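Entry 14. Ran structure prediction on the chain below.
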Amino acid sequence: MTSITIEIDGMRAQVAPGTTVLEAVRAAGGTVPTLCFDERQAPFGACRVCMVGIAGLPGPAASCTTLCREGMVIDTHDPTARRVAAATVELVLSELPHAPAPHTELAATAAWFGLDHDNLRWPGEQHAERHDARHPYLALQHELCISCGRCVRACDEVQGAFALTATGRGFAANIAAGMDQGFRESTCVSCGACADTCPTDAITEISLLALAER
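Output, structure tokens:
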């Protein structure tokens, strides 16, 4: 089979075998928001923000890890998928001590769902500010980490440095450099891949952080 025929929001499309639903929707000009997805990395399916409806399935599916199949009918406007994804983003926002910077992917995703950090339905416990500026070029703002895993995968898959590690569970989940002794004591090679992929500025260049604080 050289191509697969699918339907996206009522429109027929043909895709190559092995194409994910997210790839198919974006190729067709559609929009599906994401947080843990970076096209330079293997799909992870952790954030549950890229949810869509697929005919025949009992519930929404993560579009980044779901492969297209012949005759698949995809609904990017499925109400249940939208509700699940919006609730996920709202929960993420509720844990941050302040609204994400306007230029970040998280801010754009929140805006897409019409969410405002200062007017959430479920305000709860928020992370205290905790910064690590021991690296000469990179700053780690732990309170902005949403445990999407993109920085860890960028360090492992793109650079092969294995300098970052996911730590904790639930509300306490975060990332650590090296054995939690900071970037300087880790195997970091200062490539900046982690900062480039971070959707929240939890890892950012110190020079950019200094400009934002002026």
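Residues 140 and 203 are 5 Å apart (CA to CA). Will compare against last week's run tomorrow.
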